[in-house]
Amino acid sequence: MTKLYQTSVNLAENVREELVFLLNRRVGLFTDLYVQTKLAHWNVRGPHFIAYHELFDSIADHTLEAQDSMAERAATLGGQAGITIQAAAEQSGLSPWPLDTRQDTAVIRLLGERLHHAADQIRADIDTAANLGDADTADLFTEVSRQLDKDLWLVEAHYAE
Question: For the CA atoms of the chain, what is the radius of gyration?
Fold first, then answer.
């Protein structure tokens, strides 16, 4: 664990260390999620191309916004913000994106799986941050969770019944 910078944020150092570690893991997850979403965006093919292409771009934007907010929260707590791309891919828990999958209906399901994974992680993080006594980080995770759930809803609405 890296040493924290001096801050007047009124949380114990060990709590801040735990939160910075957690936030940076999620920065890594969202880095991987962003890249995979852009791979879907660039490579999707099929009759639903334009709808999926535009939807994926919107989701990628939301992913970057969440990533930035989590990194900035880690810095606010006195920590180093972010992790390397190599660590992000290793720690994210996402399966590698299958570059040979291009069919629109297959791509939408793959992206849905990844959004589901991220949403589950963030939902657990809400409770972790709250249990550590940091309502602000819990609130940040709640905001991220709400957007993930909405993006997942938009993706799942495209699944064939």
Answer: 17
pLDDT band at 4 (very low <50, low <70, confident <90, very high): confident
Helices (H), 44-84: 49-76
Q: Which helix (H) or strand (E) holds 130?
A: helix 104-131
Write b or e for each residue in 70-109: b if 16 or more Cβ atoms lie within 10 A of its Cβ, otherwise e. bbebbebbbbebbbeeeebeebbebeebeeeeeebeebbb
CA count, 13 A, side-chain hemisphere, 65 = 13
Q: Cα–Cα distance between 31 and 34 in angstroms, integer? A: 5
Cβ–Cβ under 8 Å, residues 119 and 149: yes
> Which domains does the chain carry?
13-156 (1.20.1260.10)
pTM > 0.85: yes
